[in-house]
């Protein structure tokens, strides 16, 4: 298991009226990735941002852009996000007709490819795809809205996924990151890390941090301190 923990603030919880400033600020505070939650009002009942926002923010971002596609169908939008500057592109396997083809499409566009699993989605998809993915993203809320409460059943699912990734690595497989998204806070991030996660998406926990507690720099440091104890 990798010991490098990465923090990926989700701009879904940022102030959209000053998005470039927000992204620069969380990077300066120590964010490792910038996470994009892309919703289409079809696969999930909400509408968020598209490739144009990614392209506009790319000059402000000096770290990897982590795009989570909550869209259906998937393939049409992959090239647009790759061209707009995405580094990682993840999607829900049930949202595409041919999972293997979509993974290949993402990689053909020069991006790292990931699969996303909702709380009730079984991990069986991984049985035949481990050699084609760079990231597994487990949702610890039902996708579609920010600010939801962490679903505790994500913890045993994290452990099961970590066991699969470690077994794959022992067989000589490529590195695969394990990301958790949904209700991740300073109070539970160490527990997520102990269960196997190495990459943590936090939206409202980061962008809602009060200035009195050190703002973005203070909350990022609090996450780092919690993870150091994991």
What can you tell me about this protein's structure?
This protein has helices spanning 19-28, 51-57, 75-84, 99-108, 154-170, 186-195, 204-207, 215-228, and strands at residues 6-9, 34-39, 65-70, 88-91, 112-117, 135-139, 177-181, 199-202. The chain has 230 residues and is of the alpha/beta class. It has an 8-stranded parallel β-sheet. The chain is globular and about 45 Å long.
Task: Supply database-style keywords.
single chain; 230 residues; alpha/beta; TIM Barrel; 8 helices; 17% strand
The count of DSSP E runs of length 2 or more, i.e. the number of strands, is 8
Number of helices: 8
CATH top level label: Alpha Beta
Instruction: Give the overall shape, derived from the CA principal axes.
Output: globular
The rounded Rg comes to 16 Å
The N- to C-terminal Cα distance equals 13 Å
Fraction of residues in helix: 25-40%
Strand order of the largest sheet: 1-8-7-6-5-4-3-2
In terms of quaternary structure, the protein is: single chain
Largest sheet: 8 strands, parallel
Q: What ranges have pLDDT less than 50 throughout 5 or more consecutive residues?
A: none
Question: What is the CATH H-level superfamily?
Answer: Aldolase class I
Overall average pLDDT: 94
Approximate strand percentage: 15-25%
Q: What is the CATH topology classification name? A: TIM Barrel
Q: Write the H/E string, N to C.
A: EHEHEHEHEEHEHEHH
Structural class of the secondary elements?
alpha/beta
CATH-level-2 architecture: Alpha-Beta Barrel
């Amino acid at each position: 298991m990798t010991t490098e923990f990465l923090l990926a603030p989700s701009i879904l919880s940022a102030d959209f009226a000053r998005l470039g400033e927000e992204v620069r600020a969380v990077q300066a505070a120590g964010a490792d990735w910038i996470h994009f939650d892309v919703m289409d009002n079809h696969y999930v009942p909400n509408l968020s941002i598209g490739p144009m926002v990614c392209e506009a923010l790319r000059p402000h971002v000096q770290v990897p852009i982590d795009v989570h596609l909550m869209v259906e169908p998937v393939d049409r939008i992959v090239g647009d996000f790759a061209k707009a500057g995405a580094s990682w592109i993840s999607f829900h396997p049930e949202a595409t007709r041919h999972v293997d083809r979509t993974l290949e499409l993402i990689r053909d566009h020069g991006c790292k490819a990931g699969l996303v699993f909702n709380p009730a989605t079984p991990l069986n998809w991984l049985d035949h795809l481990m050699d084609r993915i760079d990231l597994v993203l487990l949702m610890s809320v039902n996708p579609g809205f920010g600010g939801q409460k962490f679903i505790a059943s994500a913890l045993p699912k994290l452990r099961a996924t970590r066991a699969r990734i470690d077994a794959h690595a022992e067989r000589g497989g490529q590195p695969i990151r394990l990301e958790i998204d949904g209700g991740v806070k300073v109070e539970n991030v160490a527990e997520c890390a102990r269960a196997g996660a190495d990459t943590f998406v936090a939206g409202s926990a980061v962008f809602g941090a009060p200035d009195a507690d050190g703002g973005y720099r203070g909350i990022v440091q609090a996450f780092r301190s919690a993870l150091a104890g994991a």
